[in-house]
Structure formats: C-alpha cells, structure tokens
C-alpha cells in the first residue's frame, strides 16, 4: 500500500457522460482522511486553444491530425503533472493516456502500436498509480446526450459511444496494474464515491 503522504496520481477514464467530472468534483469536495485535487487548464489557455481548433476544424481533420492534436493536449497535461509538488493531495486526472488510445485506435482506426507509441511519447515518465474506469449504459448515455445536444443526430452520438465503450472495455481488460471499473448507470453518485474511496484506500 502506498503511503498517503507520497505523490499519488489516479486517472479517471471512460466514455462521455459517464460522470468523470462529477466524480472528480465530488472527491475534491469530500472531507475525510483522503484529500484530492486536480489539474487546471494549461498555461495561457493552451488546452482551451487546442480544444477550440478541434471543435472548429474537427470535420475536416484527418485521424492522424486529430490524434496529434489530442496528443499535444495530453503532453501538456503530463508536463503540468510532472511539475506537481510533493506531499500534496491525491491528484485526479480527467482522462489520460487510455483515452488517447481509445480515440486513436478504437474510434479512428489508427494502428494500435502507432497510437500507443504516441501516447507513451506524450506522457513521458508520468504514469498514474491507478485507474478508475467509469461506464454508462446506452439508455442513460442517450438521455444525457440528448439533454446537451437537442438538435444533434443521436445516431451519430450512439455510434461514437458504442465504439468508445468497446475501446475502454478492451483497455480495461488489457491494462496491468491497479484498476477498477464502475458502472454509473447502476450506482448513485454517493455509491460511486464510496467505491472510489474504498479502492484508493487499498492502494
């Protein structure tokens, strides 16, 4: 078990609308023995700038261009994590290397070996101590998606969700190390928090 006065990084991975941000916010606001924090957007809005490029030009980007932009965001996040001080609260990451692999290989169809190499280059020696994978059932995804995208074709969102879900499931099975998968459709937010805390306490 890792002492809680040492650096600890926990990556929260999973499909869109699975509750990653909700879990991170809840853990950071949670009082008790464990203290949590997360990383903010990049210096000078780097993360937001890359996100804006992807949003504006996403329909015209090739898979290779898209994955390199996401890799730039990942590298920027890894750099900020590497600068994180010692003896600090447990650091929670909203998406990390697994998300890049799922996007590049399972969603966009790029070769797994190449995407994995890009992810490794982006994160360098910054590796999470554990992973929490969040999942959500298709009906709940549909409801949450339609709430945010009332005019967007749900079929496109469902196809995207299905491929990403299969990708995260595959990565969870293959990932060595400390990990847990939580289905947020089957559990309340309070139960998800409790499961996450119990998992982290065992690290």
Task: Give descriptors for this structure.
Rossmann fold; Thymidylate kinase-like domain-containing protein; Thymidylate_kin-like_dom; 8 helices; 5-stranded parallel sheet; P-loop_NTPase
How does this structure look, described?
- InterPro entries: P-loop_NTPase (IPR027417), Thymidylate_kin-like_dom (IPR039430).
- Residues 12-191 form the Thymidylate kinase-like domain.
- It comes from Mucilaginibacter psychrotolerans.
- This is Thymidylate kinase-like domain-containing protein.
- This protein is α/β, with parallel strands linked by helices and 203 residues long.
- The chain has one domain (9-201): 3-Layer(aba) Sandwich (Rossmann fold), CATH 3.40.50.
- The chain is 54% helix and 12% strand.
- The protein is built from eight helices and five strands; from the N terminus they run E-H-E-H-H-E-H-H-E-H-H-E-H.
- It has a five-stranded parallel beta sheet with strand order 2-3-1-4-5.
- Helix 2 (46-57) runs antiparallel to helix 3 (63-82).
The CATH homologous superfamily corresponds to P-loop containing nucleotide triphosphate hydrolases
* Separation of the first and last Cα atoms: 5 Å
What's the total helix number?
8
Average pLDDT confidence is 87
Strand order of the largest sheet: 2-3-1-4-5
Radius of gyration (Å): 17 Å
Global geometry: globular
Number of E-state strands: 5
Overall helicity: 40-55%
In brief:
With about 200 residues, the chain is α/β, with parallel strands linked by helices.
What topology does this entry show?
Elements: E1 9-14, H1 20-28, E2 36-38, H2 46-57, H3 63-82, E3 90-94, H4 97-107, H5 112-123, E4 130-135, H6 138-148, H7 154-174, E5 179-183, H8 189-201
Parallel strand pairs: 1-3, 1-4, 2-3, 4-5
Helix pairs in contact: 1-8, 2-3, 3-4, 3-5, 4-5, 4-7, 6-7
């Amino acid at each position: 078990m890792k002492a809680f006065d040492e650096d600890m990084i926990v990556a929260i991975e999973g499909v869109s609308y699975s509750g990653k941000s909700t879990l991170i916010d809840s853990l950071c606001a949670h009082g008790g023995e464990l203290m949590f924090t997360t990383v903010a957007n990049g210096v000078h809005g780097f993360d937001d700038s890359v996100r804006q490029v992807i949003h504006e030009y996403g329909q015209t980007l090739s898979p290779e261009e898209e994955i390199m932009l996401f890799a730039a965001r990942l590298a920027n996040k890894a750099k900020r994590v590497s600068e994180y001080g010692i003896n600090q609260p447990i650091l929670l990451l909203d998406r990390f290397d697994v998300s890049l692999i799922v996007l590049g290989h399972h969603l966009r169809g790029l070769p797994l070996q190449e995407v994995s190499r890009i992810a490794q280059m982006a994160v360098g020696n910054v590796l999470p101590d554990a992973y929490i994978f969040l999942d959500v059932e298709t009906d709940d995804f549909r409801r949450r998606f339609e709430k945010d995208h009332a005019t967007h074709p749900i079929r496109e969102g469902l196809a995207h969700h299905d491929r990403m879900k299969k990708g995260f499931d595959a990565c969870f099975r293959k990932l060595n190390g400390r990990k847990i998968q939580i289905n947020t459709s089957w559990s309340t937010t309070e139960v998800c928090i409790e499961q996450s805390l119990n998992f982290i306490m065992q690290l």
